[in-house]
Design goal:
single chain, about 250 residues, mainly alpha
């Protein structure tokens, strides 16, 4: 019986040792697996960090290239617009041939420049036209005044001449009537009255001539003042149009 127990105990010991060896083997394999997993995780982590760094550098390089390609043309465009706003129409607009947004902006600025040049041309043409019109109006006013003066003087001279002729004729008639008899005294008196009337007519004509000359002189002075005012207005208009063109 004891021998049987000993044999059982030996078998149990063998089984226990086998189990212990199996457990130790599992523990070793688990430890090795953990170590391998940890090493792989570190490699994956460093690989991710390296990939992120490479992507960041690439993104920064692309951003720098894009910024360099935009900043330069935009600065040149800003400088051109500053010169154009200052009245320099000879400035060259850059990047007008570009096919991107910068090119579209440049072409819009070029249109603005062309419009400013055309406005200057129209302003200059309008000022020249106003100057010519003022000169023509001045000449017309002077011609009208000269014609009016000539007509007025001619009319007064004609009236004075007719009055003088009437005086001469009346004086002749008076001489003839005085040589006749005294019975014609009434006729002589009537002739004297007509003579006095003719003298009054000549005096009135002379006064009218003087008044006409004074009126013509006043109109000439007024025309000169109006012409000077028109020239000043044309000058101010030209200045204002140039100022508007420069503000535009």
């Amino acid at each position: 019986m004891r021998e049987v127990d000993d044999r059982i105990d030996r078998q149990v010991d063998i089984v226990v040792r086998a189990y212990d060896q199996f457990s130790q083997s599992l523990s070793d394999e688990s430890r090795l697996a953990d170590e391998m997993f940890d090493k792989r995780g570190v490699l994956i982590l460093w690989g991710s960090i390296l990939a992120a760094a490479v992507a960041t550098v690439a993104a920064l390089g692309a951003a720098w290239a894009i910024a360099s390609g935009i900043t330069g043309p935009v600065k040149a465009m800003t400088d051109a617009m500053t010169h154009l706003a200052g009245g320099d129409k000879s400035v060259t607009i850059p990047a007008t041939e570009n096919k991107d947004e910068i090119g579209a902006m440049a072409r819009a600025v070029q249109v603005f420049k062309n419009n400013a040049i055309e406005l200057d041309r129209m302003t200059s043409a309008d000022a020249e036209e106003q100057k010519k019109r003022a000169e023509m109006e001045k000449k017309k006013a002077m011609n009208d005044l000269a014609n009016a003066l000539e007509a007025s003087v001619k009319g007064v001279v004609e009236r004075v001449s007719r009055g003088a002729e009437a005086i001469v004729e009346t004086a002749g008639q008076m001489g003839k009537k005085l040589d006749t008899s005294t019975s014609r005294t009434l006729d002589v008196a009537e002739a004297s009255i007509r003579t006095a009337q003719n003298v009054d007519t000549v005096a009135a004509a002379a006064e009218e001539l003087s008044a006409s000359i004074n009126e013509i002189s006043r109109q000439v002075a007024q025309s000169a003042e109006i012409t000077s005012s028109a020239a000043d207005d044309a000058g101010r208009t030209n200045t204002e149009m140039k100022s508007l063109a420069e503000s535009a």
